[in-house]
Amino acid sequence: MIALSNESLSPLLDGQRLMAILRGFGVDRSVELAQQAWSLGIDCVELPIQSNRDIDALCAVVAAGASLGKSVGAGTIVSLEHVRQAHNAGAAFTVSPGYDPAIVRASFDAGLPPLPGVATASEMQAALASGLTWLKAFPASVLGPTWFTTMAGPFPQAKFVATGGMDASNAEIFLASGVRTVAVGSALGDPDQLKLLAAIAHA
Questions:
Q1: With the C-alpha atoms ordered 98, 99, 102, 108, is the resulting torsion angle positive or negative?
Q2: 88 with 113: CB under 8 angstroms?
Q3: Are 82 and 49 in contact (CB under 8 A)?
Q4: How far is it, in rounded angstroms, from Cα 51 to Cα 131?
Q5: Phi/psi at 130 (nearest 5 deg)?
Q6: H or E element, residue 175
Q7: Cα-flanking dihedrals φ and ψ of residue 108, to 5°?
Q8: What is the pLDDT of residues 73-88, one digit of tens each?
Q9: Measuring CA to CA, how many Å separate 203 from each of 74, 108, 175?
């Protein structure tokens, strides 16, 4: 396989302690939560697309972000059709729960740097060997913080986005374990967590 690089994600993710995942909120609520995330200093926003309603929401958030200079990614990309939908909606990057070389290739062909998911050393080795350095660790809460410190030994070049079960109560623990970015979802809709998330984003 020809080596590919998703280092073009670095300007978006470097220094971004949090990423917002807006799953299944519909158009209006997704735009509202995206604007809320941006106001908190969470510049990186991802919308998983699993229905036509999600695609409509992605298009709306992409449009809202464009006026503010914000890039929006498309998540739960598990098929080539999803890559096409993400590209047509104006997404800036793709995010997948697992590592699929065909989806990685299709994403690059569409001009969308991919952020594939990994959960094992074998998946990491394959992704890194293909040239990818930004990786989504999923499900992060199940893997646990020590997984990241352990994986840093054989794979020091990996840059992790921790996804799955993340919120204001555990984000700092994962960041202290070497995670570059923690992706939070439902926590954004919890008023009790918003101030805590804002403090984490700006720490």
A1: positive
A2: no
A3: yes
A4: 31
A5: -80, -5
A6: helix 171-176
A7: -60, -40
A8: 999 999 999 999 999 9
A9: 27, 33, 11
Predicted pLDDT at 188: 86
> What is 16-198's CATH topology?
TIM Barrel (3.20.20)
Question: First-to-last CA distance in the chain?
Answer: 40
The span from the CA of 134 to the CA of 112, in Å, is 13
3-state SS class at 88: helix
Encode pLDDT of 37-54 as tens digits. Answer: 999 999 999 999 999 999
Domain boundaries, the chain: 16-198
Q: How many CB atoms lie within 10 A of CB 135?
A: 25
Q: Find out whether 116 and 138 touch, Cβ atoms under 8 Å.
A: no
- DSSP 3-state of 72: strand
**Average pLDDT of span 3-15:** 92
List, in sequence order, every residue forming a beta bridge with 21; answer none if it has no partner: 46
**Residue found by looking up tokens 């509202």 in the block:** 32
- Residues with Cβ within 8 Å of 180's Cβ and at least 6 positions away in sequence, in order, are 13, 14, 16, 134, 159, 160, 161
pLDDT reported for residue 2: 57
Starting from the edge strand earliest in sequence, which strands make up the sheet with 159-163, in order? 114-115, 93-95, 72-75, 44-48, 18-21, 181-184, 159-163, 134-137, 117-118
104, 4 Cβ separation under 8 angstroms: yes
Q: How far apart are CA 203 and CA 113, in angstroms?
A: 27
Which DSSP symbol is given to 8? Answer: G
